[in-house]
Amino acid sequence: MSLLTANNLTVSIGELTICKKTELRFAADQTWAILGRNGSGKTTLLHTLAGLREPQEGIIHLRTQPMAQLQRRFIAKQLGILFQQQDDPFPATVMETALIGRHPYIESWRGETAEDIQCAESALKSVELEGFEHRFSSTLSGGEKQRLKIATLLTQNPQIMLLDEPTNHLDLNHQIKLLNLISKVTQARQGVTLMVLHDLNLAARFCTHALLLNPGEAPLQGSLEEVLQAESLERAYGWPVKRFNINGKVFYHPQ
Amino acid sequence: MTKSTKLISFLFLAALISLFVSISSGAMSLSLTQIWQALTGDSESLAYMLIWELRLPRAITAFVVGAMLSIAGALMQVILRNPLADPYILGVSGGASVAALLAMLAGIAGIGISISAFAGALLSTLLVFSIAHGSGSWSPMKVLLTGVVLAAGWGALISLILALSPDQGLRSMLFWLMGDFSYSSSYGWGSLTLLVGFIASYWLARPLNLLLHGSVQAASLGVSVEKVYLLIFLVASLLTAVAVSLAGNIGFVGLIVPHLVRLSIGSDHRSLLPACLLLGGTLMLIADLLARTLFSPQQLPVGVITALLGVPLFLLILHRGLRKY
After folding, report:
1. Residue A13 domain-assigned?
2. Which of A113, B77, B195, B262 is the most buried (most CB within 10 A)?
3. Which residues, numbered 225 to 264 in chain B, qualify as contacts with chain A under a Cβ-Cβ cut-off of 8 Å?
4. In which domain, by residue range, is A169 found?
5. Number of domains chain A contains
């Protein structure tokens, strides 16, 4: 079943047309890699799919309902997004930050319940930030901040996750752990995850589908096998890429 | 008891004590029994008149103005996403000042000055809104820049009016510009505005917490950002406009009180807003008390005291680094 669908979607920003009259279907149990050069419109596309930006043309459906007609709070219970950039000019603790993920579930006259706090605690634990609850987020390292953002998203617990460069600032260990965690959550929720990635090997390892943006052309989409071929990657990135298949595992090597 | 409940109870107590000290001291100090008699209705005494007609109205006005400015400051800092924002940053006080000074120049006195200051504040707010919204899209940065530029324009007009005014009016104009409670006559409207403004912003406390993390993040977590922004701007502008019309330009309170509270209990608006109300009101009460009594019978402009009190207090707390920025 398609959880997130775009019909006849045209998105452009400035002079750049990211996609034109494109059909996109993101179904349960799929993990999509969104790939493309810098400035090819990955983030803009992600924000459009999250309903945070009006498309030039086309309709985005959340399950069967047109997103533009839905309340933000209703959307937030189904769909969560991890932003690439975020700066917090005011002090907030790690716990307070993780708890904002519960916002869509709490009525405006109510406070957080013990259940909400437990939810935030287990999210923090899953990104290895237990014991950091009372630290200020401004005192965290880049990688820790990134994990806190992911914990906030897990606290929100949406079925559809849109992740903009989730592995930013993460060390090797945490990159793999995080992507394992995301796969596990996606499966458990029978959800769909879209992630902007720059590492083709991570995409090959953790994703089932790929969307490859080509400025000035229609984006390529489909299964990993269909999209991540050496020629199309070379065209998209403007750099020769070799593809290896070793014992059924696919690896990419930029020349 | 959590840290924020502790702080709020402490501030509540401090507010009561300073209110009491404020109505008991002045050119004629009153004893506890005199105050009690006056409050319980011995309407013949001098103390009764002194308290009900002079000191209590003035004390309440001071408290209300301080509270309004502090809440407005906290709101402005969040929606403009700028720790340097204060209630006056969008030129509200500039507009109010120009209108008030023009009224003084025209020989209007008393409540007329408050009314024209309020009109000027509203005019300035509308100007900022319509100019910043003019070309469609709308961002905190655009509103901020529009406000700052307009404020500079008002500043020039103020200087122009001062330069052209006859000497005998200058002193009262300067006092008004520095913030002064001697014009304040009615505190009913102020109290009502504070109540409405506080309830509205408290209702939006959790969305405000989310807005601290940026408007797109808030939107992605279910906040109707445009609606909340608009409402908060209206509340903050209204609070500021009424505060300015009651007491002129009192700087600093609206900037530092929210920071003082954040430094000690963090940025959760459910405790930040009530704490701002109490701390802002109390600081203003104390500042007004000092302004009335330090060089009595000579009165000082209260704005001078708020800055003189505020600067060292803020630096001290910042230096102790209770909360990390």
Report:
1. yes
2. B77
3. 225, 262
4. 2-86+157-254
5. 1
